[in-house]
Amino acid sequence: MPIAEDVRLAADVVIAHPDLVNLYGCAIGEKTSVAPFVEIQKKATIGARCKVSSHAFICEGVTIEDDCFIGHHVSFINDRYPKASNADGVLQTEADWAVVPTRVCRGASIGSGAVILCGVTIGAGALVGAGAVVTRDVPARGVVAGNPARRLRSLDDEPASEHGSVPLVDLARHNRSIGPELARALDDVVSRSEFILGTDVEHFERAFAQYVGTRFCVGLNSGTSALHLALLACGVEPGDEVVTTPHSWISTCWAISYVGARPVFVDVDATSYNIDPALVERAITPRTKAILPVHLYGQACDLDALTRIAARHGLPLVEDAAQAQGAMFGGRRVGSFGRAGCFSFYPGKNLGAFGEAGAVVSDDEAIASRIRQLRDHAQQQRHQHAEIGYNMRMEAIQAAVLDVKLPHLDAWNAARRRHAGLYARWLADVPGLRLPTVASRADAHVWHLYVVLLPEVDRQQVLDKLASQGIACGVHYPTLIPFQPAYAHLGHRPGDFPVAEDAARRCLSLPMFAELSQAQVERVASVLRAVL
């Protein structure tokens, strides 16, 4: 069968032997080349400047974007459960088939003899090896091969190089890995133009609550707002006390101050640098109204001890899980233990938005309802404001981005754990260098940051030497919160928090993000060893 009349051909399409192809009901973009013995079925779409090699079979439901290469004998499948006949022995017809769409994103290449199962997305610029059987999505610029196809590497992986630079975080590379998914989600938001709260936010709230294991999730405009509204919803008022850690990002303490309460700092333990539960209990007074631990650097606090203490004293536990999306403790995800769990989705977090965003999760309907009302100017109904409220609503664009990223989070966290293992192996014998440890099970840590404690050296000199070799590092955090000028009125002095003070003085954050290559981790370790 030659080219059917219902085929839509753009300008300059090249079909080498029109009498040796089977094209019907499809659309082919400009300057695309189609070789002999190719079948392209109805409702299939081929973009511009593609090359379709001989004997390829492109079935209904397949979309191939611009600039793609389809090798010889590549076959697409569009029905998950194809059968010849029904239970009554009658041959199946088109009405019995369930077409599942498949997409090949711009610039991807599929090698000869590959089989692409239905329902997958092959990311932009990806390479599928010859003979591969693709059963799941291929990330943008990913390289896969085998049966079933497995990821070999990314085209963005940097080869080992004596002079290669390594960033602390590489958001561009991270977002490129799922670029087509993100682009579709953003296009959808713009097409509907529902930018504040709305269906995208509601969908993400349901998905994230299910992921964490709580009944409710309330999307907000930042992690700081999440902490602020969580404390308000838990009844913390001016003059109350909240027990927390001195070693964290300042937002932890801002939230306490925003509600008019007084932060009561206790030292951290020397293993995880999370808040020390034994010291928490000693700090509780009749004025204490909440306990606010931080899962620092991505590692879960001792939630068994903290929940017992909170229950014993009748206090709400408010988890600051801003750095710990996906971390586990005793088989449950952090954020699900307290009266409220607070998350930040700042772009550099393990689960990061395209700007500021945050959320509170809870099993307490009253807490969730109060926060949902407070975030939207305290409106019980439109134009009815029961109390002083806030403009802390999540944007739909942020929710759409987070919704795309959430299914990838566990894989990204697993990659971070692998990088942490490599650092531990290659830095184990450096004199005086203290490596981070996992206080409980491996899944308790999602390695938002990989923080070492330097030996007794000048940290700034180490940072400068690393930077001169192209290694970007950070310091999280050089000054404890009680020693910040904003909290000078509390009267804390050096020596009040010896473990946290030692950590603040010596800490150094090494490059850590899911897309790091083994060569990059090895280079960081090698340069750090040489510097020390």
Which features would summarize this protein structure in a list?
single chain, 532 residues, UDP N-Acetylglucosamine Acyltransferase, domain 1, Aspartate Aminotransferase, domain 1, eight-stranded mixed β-sheet, 13 helices, 27% helix, globular
Coarse morphology: globular
How far is the N terminus from the C terminus?
72 Å
Percent of residues in helices: 25-40%
CATH superfamily of the largest domain: Type I PLP-dependent aspartate aminotransferase-like (Major domain)
Mean pLDDT: 92
Explain how this protein is built.
This protein is an alpha/beta fold and 532 residues long. The protein folds into 3 domains: 8-154, Hexapeptide repeat proteins (UDP N-Acetylglucosamine Acyltransferase, domain 1, 3 Solenoid), CATH 2.160.10.10; 179-407, Type I PLP-dependent aspartate aminotransferase-like (Major domain) (Aspartate Aminotransferase, domain 2, 3-Layer(aba) Sandwich); 409-531, Alpha-Beta Complex (Aspartate Aminotransferase, domain 1). Helix content is 27%, strand content 18%. It contains 13 helices and 33 strands. It starts with 7 loop residues before the first strand and ends with a helix. The model has no long low-confidence stretch (mean pLDDT 92).
